[in-house]
Amino acid sequence: MTSFEQLADYRRQVAEMYAAVRAGGSTAVETSHRFRATRDALFRNHPQSALSPEAREKFSGLRYFDYDPAYRFVLPIDTNVEPQTLEVELEADGLVRLRRFGRVHFALNGQTVSLSLYWIMGYGGGIFLPFRDATNIHETYGGGRYLLDTIKGADMGQADGQIVVDFNYAYNPSCAYDERWVCPLAPVENRLAVRIEAGEKTYQGDYP
Fold first, then answer.
1. 3-class secondary structure, 160
2. pTM exceeds 0.85 for this model
3. Which long-range contacts (CB under 8 A, 24 or more apart) does 13-22 make?
4. Which spans in 28-148 are helix H?
5. Any idea where the domains of the chain sit in the sequence?
6. Mean pLDDT for each consecutive 10-residue tract of the chain (208 residues)?
7. Most exposed residue of 7, 104, 119, 135, measured as fewest CB within 10 angstroms of its CB?
8. Is cis: bond before 76, omega within 30 of 0?
9. CA 191 to CA 130: how far, in whole Å?
């Protein structure tokens, strides 16, 4: 296959992973374990893996916090926000424009916190939700993690007309695995002072 066909196949498999989570059919813990095993297989075997070929050869699996239902939320989107547009210059992709279209509010460890939701401007578009928290650097990737990137299939869906925000599926951007990647990271407004002990931990490979 050409690299374009490979990438289309990778995106298709990612979308299928998230579709399986939305479909349920087993316990939340079993669903998360199945998701993580499938993701490990993609990282290990797929030519479009974020890992370099050398890293794939010795890859032993990604590391995660244990599944915790306390980090899963079904939230209304607060659209009473200023629709600011952020511009991020990426080396390979050029200028990426992210438009704030809403916020979600939730409580963790006795604190009420909020995260902004962004719409990726351009053909097709998609919801993008990056964040940072107090686990960064030591336990999770220093640049923060992603929760949603629907343009690439990372979509937890909706329930009762509200958006599903499940930090157990928080994952590292590609730049956490190899320095050849350049990724948009969480803006200041999405940097949380609380600890999010859920989702993917730091990658323990040669990089970073």
1. coil
2. yes
3. 13/38, 13/42, 13/46, 14/42, 14/152, 14/153, 14/154, 15/153, 15/155, 17/42, 17/153, 18/153, 18/154, 18/155, 18/156, 18/157, 21/156, 21/169, 22/155, 22/156, 22/157, 22/164
4. 28-45, 53-57
5. 3-190
6. 92 96 92 97 95 92 96 97 81 78 94 95 90 94 94 93 96 90 88 96 70
7. 7
8. no
9. 9
